[in-house]
Metalloendopeptidase
Amino acid sequence: MQDSDGNYLIPFVISGNYDALERKIIKSAMEKIAENTCIRLIPRTNQPDYAEILNKKGQGCYASIGRFPGKNVVMLESNDDQSCIQEDTVIHELFHVIGLWHEHMRADRDAFINVLYKNIEPAQYPQFEKLSSRDATTYNVPYDYKSVMHYDETAFAKPGKISMMTKDSKFQKVIGHPRDASSNDYKKVCAIYHCSKCMKQNFDQLVISDNIDLRNPVVTNTPIQQGDSDCTDRLGICPMLKSREMLNCKVMATFCCSSCSAPTTTTTVSTPTDTSLWSRIKSIFQ
Ligand SMILES: [Zn+2]
């Protein structure tokens, strides 16, 4: 849905219980996105597809990636135990809704980080899935340790361990501690939606000045293997989504063929804090 200025509108409702300061932080995150991209989060009236911001105990912070029919949950837990209401966290979850995946899951991430699987419980491996550039193009935006979409070094690691080591050691303590979205994060959003203005600049000029072409993403690696035709799960997270009844097979069938064709089971899978992964970036808001 676009307005007359060509901005993309995402209707939202805040159903969770938040105090005045928390609401202010949520609003400020939305305003930052509006200032820097062509996305506008607008209060929902009667739009069928919308984001619903919820605060439920024990649920943590998560959102689905991209647009789904009906209610799209953005879980922002806030209570005495934990709070997702920091501006960078709110922006992170809203970016999922807008279509961004995690930075450390990029196709080229192995050139920038080592994922230390020995320090991670196998049940959490899906959090470190590497996406093919076919599933999530990077729009030629360079890997960014400062991305608001990057986890920190201890994310999903065993106690006292680290799960990721940056190849450039000076960024080890930088990852996962953004104060704000990075300009590369905003560029990616602008590229996805073909925003004419990005970070208050003309998008085309921005492209030229940075010497990277955001308009023609080159999809390079990881063609689908021939073997995929025999219906496998191409994302490790498929079984977990299925167990949580979050697997939308209308959208995910090609990625989660095995899970989508298997009967529903009652397997219990541990619940990570951020269970974002869903649809393809390009399937949203077109
Ligand atoms: Zn996330």
Notes: The helical segments are 20-36, 87-98, 183-193, 203-209, 238-243, 249-252, 257-261.
